[in-house]
Task: structure prediction
Amino acid sequence: MKKHPGFDQEIETEFQDEFYRNSLRTHRIALWIGIVVYIFFQLLDLGMPPEIIRSLLIIRFGVVIPILLGLFAFSYTKIHKKTYDLVSSLALLAAGIGVMAVQVAVEPGGFSTYITSLIIVIISAYTLARLRYFAAGFTGWTLFVVFTGTALFLNITNNLVISVAFLAVSNLIGMTSAYFNDQYMRREFLQRKLLEQERQRSDRLLLNILPTPVAERLKQGDIIADSYDDASVLFVDIVGFTQWASQKHPEEVLSTLNVIFSHYDKLVEELQLEKIKTIGDAYMVVGGVPTPQKSHLVAIATLALRIKETMQDHSQINPAGFVLRQGIQCGPVVAGVIGSKKFIYDLWGDTVNTANRLEFSAEAGRIQVSQDVYEKLKDSFTFEERGLVLLKGKGELFTYWLTGKKDTVIESVS
Result:
């Protein structure tokens, strides 16, 4: 079969697999229709002479119907998929040749009575049987040749020319219809394939921007605006990066940030946290949002320490020798999606503002946390008291430096 433009071997295989799945039920129904039709016509022929009835019973119930029943049972085997065209063709050939045998038994001198039944079988090859284009054409024209050869062999010439003409026209109409139907199915399949690829691409882009649960809700048309009573927020800022960047080529600046933040992203994913955004050389992470996490504050503190360690000990990630300021706060937040075209998932609330101020007022190389964070983590992490610090827009706040993790802390924070 000539492939539709855009069909490589992989897509062709997918198309054939889908065609088979969609055709199997129709194929089985067609077999039962053939069986019922043969039984129905046997009932119509009960008024014929006994010797003819015996011949018809042999043809219908001794040959054709057992073949159709056998092919129906075969459709439930594992190898049926590989022989689908062959099995379907055999079913139609059995039905068509059975029609010819019945005709010879009933009316030895001509083919006038049952020619309509043979035309129905041929049309079924191109429609109901769900044969592929070339298999349908092979079946239809094989029946045409068998019919013509049988008539000539038996020297049956009554209405032969008209019968042959009807069969030929039926095949031509069927082939034309099957060809355009095949092309339509292939175009429709390719369009769905391309649409699915675009949908997956857009989903990947959406998941790169938004947390997975949020992206799924957004696709359902939900308005994303949620409040969380317990969350933890970390801000990380690279000290002196702006001044350094002003002396470097833009590509070097972008490359450096990409290496650093990509490593942060990996750590965030390992600790099951959620990156919210980057603003210049600042990096923002949340724990417990949008998926609640019992130990999110432990995970946030662990992340801060690992980021600090990375920047101190890994020259490949931090070749310029940058140091960081970090701030952590815990408490309630509001989270939601803003924008209608360029989405962004963001956080609001006093917890966010305090974490940002803690980072801003921290000393270079230090992780500053609030009293609330200290009280929740003091049994698991080590701290140094800093004391009262004046935070912009917040007033004085008692703070601590997060310095390390105690041995009792379990590494897994999931």
